[in-house]
Amino acid sequence: MESGHPYRADSGLRRGNSSRIFSSNAAADHQFFSPSSQGQDDDEEALKWAALEKLPTYDRLRKGILTTSTGEASEVEVQNLGFQERKNLVERLVNVAEEDNEKFLLKLRNRIDRVGIHVPTIEVRFEHLNVEAEAYVGSRALPTFFNFSINMLEGFLNYLHILSSRKKHLWILKDVSGIIKPSRMTLLLGPPSSGKTTLLLALAGKLDHALKFSGRVTYNGHEMDEFVPQRTAAYISQHDLHIGEMTVRETLAFSARCQGVGTRYDMLAELSRREKEAGIKPDPDIDVFMKAAATEGQETSVVTDYIIKVLGLEVCADTVVGDEMLRGISGGQKKRVTTGEMLVGPANALFMDEISTGLDSSTTYHIVNSVKQYVHIFEGTALISLLQPAPETYDLFDDIILLSDGEIVYQGPRENALLFFEYMGFTCPARKGVADFLQEVTSIKDQMQYWARRDVPYRFITVKEFAVAFQSFHEGRRLENELGVPFDKSKSHPAALTSKKYGVNTRELCKACFSREFLLMKRNSFVYIFKFSQLTIMAVIAMTLFLRTEMHRDSVPDGGIYVGAMFFIVVVIMFNGMAEIALTLVKLPVFFKHRDLLFFPAWTYALPTWILKIPITFIEVAIMVFITYFVIGFDPSVGRLFKQYLVLLFTNQMASGLFRGIAAVGRSMVVANTIGSFVLLLLFALGGFVLSRDNIKKWWIWGYWTSPMMYAQNAVVVNEFLGKSWSHVLPYSMEPLGVEILKSRGFFTEAYWYWLAVAALFGFTLLYNLLYILALAFLNPLGKPQQAGLSEEPQSNKVGRMGEATHLMNPGSSSSLHTRAESIDEIGRSKSSRFTCNKQSGVILPFEPHSITFDKVMYAVDMPQEMKSHGVHEDKLVLLKGVSGAFRPGVLTALMGISGAGKTTMMDVLAGRKTGGYIEGNITISGYPKKQETFARISGYCEQTDIHSPHITVYESLLYSAWLRLPTEVDTETRKIFVEEVMELVELNPLRQALVGLPGVNGLSTEQRKRLTIAVELVANPSIIFMDEPTSGLDARAAAIVMRTVRNTVDTGRTVVCTIHQPSIDIFEAFDELQLFLLKRGGEEIYVGPLGRHSCHLIKYFEGIEGVNKIKDGYNPATWMLEVTGAAEEIALGVDFAEIYRSSELYRRNRALIKDLSTPAPCSKDLHFSTRYSRSFFTQCLACLWKQHWSYWRNPPYTAVRFLTTTLIGVIFGTMFWDIGSKITKRQDLFNAMGSMYAAVLFLGVQNAASVQPVVAVERTVFYRERAAGMYSALPYALAQVLIELPYVFVQAAVYGVIVYSMIGFAWTFPKFFWYLYFMYFTLLYFTFYGMMTVSVSPNHQIASIISAAFYGIWNVFSGYVIPQSRMPVWWRWNSWICPVFWTLNGLVSSQFGDMKDRLETGETVDQFVRAYFNFKHDFLGPVASVIFGFTVLFAITFAICIKLFNFQKR
User: Fold this and answer.
1) Cα separation, 717 vs 711, whole angstroms
2) How far apart are CA 369 and CA 372, in angstroms?
3) How confident is the model at residue 1000 (pLDDT cuts 50, 70, 90)?
4) Dihedral angle at the C-alpha atoms of 620, 624, 630, 633, nearest 10 degrees?
5) Phi–psi pair at 387, nearest 5 degrees
6) Fewer CB within 10 Å, N side or C side of the chain?
7) Which of 799, 842, 802, 841 is nearest to 824 (CA)?
8) Which domains does the chain have, with CATH numbers?
C-alpha cells in the first residue's frame, strides 16, 4: 500500500512519458476547485504560489509551500525536508491515524479525480493452479546421519536414471481457480497447512522452483512473463527477517529507497500540468506531501513517516529491531515492521501472509482498516491471509476465499459465505465468529457440532464434496462465467504493470546499499576495533618473538627463521579474513529476502561490503607491517618496507574476498566454516612453506600454481632475500646468502617474481569477489521451509481423540476433578460420531495450589542511546509503573493491552525471567516472599518465542521435559502415559515423529511449535503457569484447542496467567471465572477485575466512564475494550484511565485482596524442597546425554559433513605427502613430514572448533530456557555436550589416522601407530572443546569465531614449526609450554622420528637433529601425552564453568 501514494504507473516511464500515460485519460473537469482556492487566501501565500506556478514543471515538482510551526507559509525544496518538518507535516495530515487516515486518503483521491486522472488498477486471475511437492515420509524424512548418506547415494543414482525416486508426491494446491478484484478486500482463510502461503506466493510470482507448478496466473490478462510480478505486487511474508542493528525507521527508509516511487512522479507531473491549466490551487500540505512522496533517492522519505504513523510504530521508530541476542522491539512491533517494509513501496497489489501474528485485535483491526481505506479509495488489489480475524476485522473484507486441503471450498462475497454452508446443511451459532466457523466447518474434528439438519443423519462431508458443491452454488457458477470471459487487455492502464526490474536506477541503489553498509559498520564498530587490537597483539608478539637482536644472518638455517617470520605474518593476514565468514552469513537471510523482492541486484549489495572495507584493510596491514618490519630486522630499505606493505595489502583483500565468497557459497555457518577450513588447508599446504616446491608431487603441482598464498609467500621472501642485507656470500659458497636460502626452501630467485605475484594477488582478489557476487546472484538459501517429518499414520487414526482429557488431582479432594459438564460437552461435540471414548483415561499427579501477589512492582531499563540522541534526558526508561494484583488458583487471569503495553515485560518480571533492568516492589507466593529457586520448581512459562532443540522429535521433547521436571516419585510408565495424554490434549499425536526444526527454516509450523511449547510446560505438572501469547500465530481452530487445554488446566485448580492478543468472542468468554488484567501503553493497569457473563462487568465498568462509546451488538468485547481505552481515546476524552481505575471501588477491592493473599494462611509453610532440582545429578546427566545423542545423530550438516571432509582431507594429505615418512635423507624431508602433521593438526582442529560453534550456540538458547525452568543445573548440560563429542571425534580421528598413516608411509609398529592415533584424537578433542568454550564466553557464535581466530594465530606461531623452540627468545619460550599445538607436534614428531637412527646428508642422525633443532625428546612421550590430555580436560571444564556463570540472553 502506500496508502496515499496513488501516482503510480509503469516504473519504466519517466518524466518525459508522463503525459503519454496519464493525459490519455478523461479530460479534467474544470468546475471543481479546492477548498483553499475558494476561500480568501492569504495574499503572501497566494503570491508565493503564483511564483511557484511560473516555474518549469521539473522545478515546480521539487518545490512546495509549507506552513511552519509558527504558522508562516514558506517555499521549500521537497527533497530537503528535515526530520521535524516531515514529522509536523504528517502530524497535520494524519494526527490520529485511526480517525484521520481515511480523510487524508480522500483528500488525495479528490485532488486526482478533480482533474480527471484515472488511477491504475490490477485484476489478478488464477486458473487451474496445481502445486505439487516431493518429499520423504515417515522415518526417511528425519535427517539422520544414515538417511543423509542414503539420500546422497539415491540422489546420484536418480540423476543417472539407475533408480527411481522414493519420494512421495504431495499435493499442496489442487486445481484452484479464482479472481482477485481491484477495489475489493479479499480475505484468505483456511486451517494451517491448507496451502494459503503457497497460493499467495504463486500469485505474487515468488513460488519455489523446486515445486511442480501448472496452471496460469494473469494480471489484467497479461501472463507473468510479460511484466515484473515481484515489483507489481508486494508479498508480505509471515516470517520477520530484519537486520537487528538497524532501527525501525532505518529499516523502512532503506526499503522505501530501494523500491522507489513507481510512477508517482509521472502522475504528479500530469496532475500538476492539468491543475495549472484549470487554475486549481491544491491544498499546500497535500501538495508538499505528494511531491515529497514522488521524489526518489531520499535517505528518509515522508512515506516512511506516514507508514510509521499508520502502523502505530512511532513509539519504537528509533529503537533497533533486535534479534535473538540483541534486545529490540516486541514481536508484535516486529510483525508491523515486516508489513511496513512492503507498504512503503509503490506496489499496486498486496499479498499479505498472516500479518496479524503477535498483534492485539485492536491493532490488527486498525492495520487492516487502513489497508481497506487504501484499497477502496485508490482501487488497490489486496489478498490478505489472517489466522484469527476478530468479527469486526472479518467484516472489513468484501470477499472471502476459503481454502482447505489445497482446494477452494468457497470464493465470493462475504455476505454469501454463510448461505453456502447453510445450503450444505451447516449453520454458524450465535456469538461465534464467522471466520472461526468457516475454518472449523471443514475439519473432521469440529464439523459435527455445526450440523443443522436434524431430520437428516449427520455424515462427515469432505473438502472435495464442498469444492464440488460450490461449483453448482450460484456464486460458483458466477465465478466460472467470469473466468470464461478473458480480461480485455485494452482496458489495462498502461501504468498498472511494472516492466522495469528495479525500482530506482543502479546509481541510487548503490548509494542506498553503501549508506546502509556504512551504518552497519558503525553499529558493529566493536568487531573492527577488536580486529585492530587483535592484530596489534599479534604484531607485538611477532616483533618480540623474532627480535632483531636474536636474528642473525650467518647461515641458511638463520634465513629459515626469517622465512618463518614472514610466513607467520602472511598467515595472520590470511586468517584475519576468516572473520568475514561470520559477518557475511549473519546478513544473508535478509539479503535473500531483499534480492527476491527485487530491492536491488546482487552486485549492488556485494560492492559496498568489499569497497567500504578497503580502508580498514589499509589500517590492518599498516598495524602488522609498520610495527614489525624494522624491529624484526628485515632489510632496512624504505622501498622494500612499502613493497611488503603492498603485497600484504593485496593478500588481505584476496583473503577477505575468498572468505566472503565461501560464506555466500556455503550459506550456513557449519557448511561455510567447513569449506573455509578446507580451502585454507589447500592454500596453506600448497603455499610453498609447509611443503617445498621441489617436493610437491606432479599430480598436485597445479594446486601450487593456483594457490594465492604461494604468490604472497614468494613475493614477501623475494622482496626480502634479494635485498642488500642478504647479498654477502658465505665461505665455501658461490652465491649470495639470500639466493641460497631461497633455493634451499624451493622459492623463486628472480626479482620479477615480486610484481608477478602482486598482479596474481590482484587477479585473485577480483576473482573471489566475482565468485561472491555470482553466488549471491544465483544461489538460494539452504533449508526449505517445510515440515521435517511427515507422519505416515493413517488419517483415520489421527482424528477425533480429544475426549480423553488429562485428569489432574485437585488437592481439595481425594478423587480426580473431572472437567466440567459443559467442557465435556464441548469436547464431545467436537468428535465425529464414529469415535467414542469407552475408557476413562487419566493419570493422577498431585500438586499444591499457590497464589501469587505483587504490589507496586516497577521495572525500568537504562534509557536507549537512540532516545537520548532525540532529546530524552531521563536516565531510565520505566516500562512498568507500579502495577499491583493477585493471581489465584482455579482462576484464569488474562493479561491484555495493546502491543507495547508491557504484557510480556510484566510476565517476565513476575516469573523471574528478566536478566537485566531494575525491579522494585513486593512479590509473594501464597503469602511468602518469592524465591526464584523454589518458584522455578512449581511454575511453568510458555514463552512467546518457541525455543526448542531443533533436531529432536515432538514426542522426544515432551518425554525429555517430563523426565527432568516431574518428581522422582513418578515412575517411568506413569510418566509416559502422562506424556501421551498431554499430547492428546494438545493434539500433537499426528506430529509425534516430526522434527521440531528451526523457526522459519524447517520443521514445525508456527502453530504446531506453539502447541509444543505449551505441552512442554504442561508435562511438568506445575502449580502456576505463565503463558505469553499462547494463541499468537494460531488459526481459530488451533487457538480453540490451546484455550481448551488452558481451560482444562485452570479447572484442576491451578493458577494460570495468559497474555492474549487477539481473543475471539468464544475464547474471551470461554471461562466462567476469568480475571482481566488490562494494561495501557506505559505499563499502568486500567482495569483489574472479573469479566462476567458475556463480559458484563467489563462493559459496565467502561461504559460508566463519561464519553466512552457504547459497545455494538455482536461486537467482540476484547476489541471494543482495546479501542475505547487507546491513547487516541484518552486524548479525545481528556482522561487518564489509570487515574480513573485508581479512584474506583474495584481498585479498593483489589487492594484488600492483595493484602489478604499477601499474608500466609494459618498452618501453611513456605515453599521448600530438599533438593534444588527434581532429579538427581546422574539423571540430569543421563537425560541431557540422551537428548544430545539424538541432536547429533539427526544433524548431518554437522556430523556427516565433518566426517566427509575429514576423509577427503585425509586422502588429499595422503596423496600430497605420499610416502615421505619412509625415507628421511635431508632436513627438508623432515620439515615436509612435520609440515604434514602441522597442517593437519591446525586445520582439522580449526575446522572442528569452527563447526561446533553454531551447534552449541543454537543449543545454548534452549539451555537458557530449560535452566530458567529449573530442569537441570549447568554441569549436566555441559557434561552431555562434552561426552557426546567423544565417539564422533574418535571415529573422525581413526578414519583420518588410518588413511594418512598408511599413505604417508610412517613405520607400522603398534606403539608408533597408537601414539599417532592418541595424539590426533586428543588434539581434535581439545580443539572441539576450545570451540565450545569460546561460545560459552561470547554473546553469539559470530563473536566466538573472531575470539577463537585470535588464539589460532598465537598457537600457530608458538607451535614450534614456524620457529623452533630453541630459537625463540627466552622471554617467549614459556608461551610454547602453554601452547597445546606445540605439545601435539612434540608428541607426533617424537613418537615417529624421536628414535630414528637414519643419517641425514649433514651427517647427524634423525633423532639427534630432532632433539637439537626442535628440542623434542622421545623419552619425554609420557609427560607430553599427559599434558595433551590435561588441555582437553581444561577446555571442557572451562566450558562448563562459563556456561554456568555467563548469561548473554538479554530480557
Assistant:
1) 10
2) 5
3) low
4) -150
5) -85, -50
6) C
7) 802
8) 15-121+244-347 (no CATH), 526-778 (no CATH), 821-825+854-1157 (3.40.50.300), 1201-1445 (no CATH)
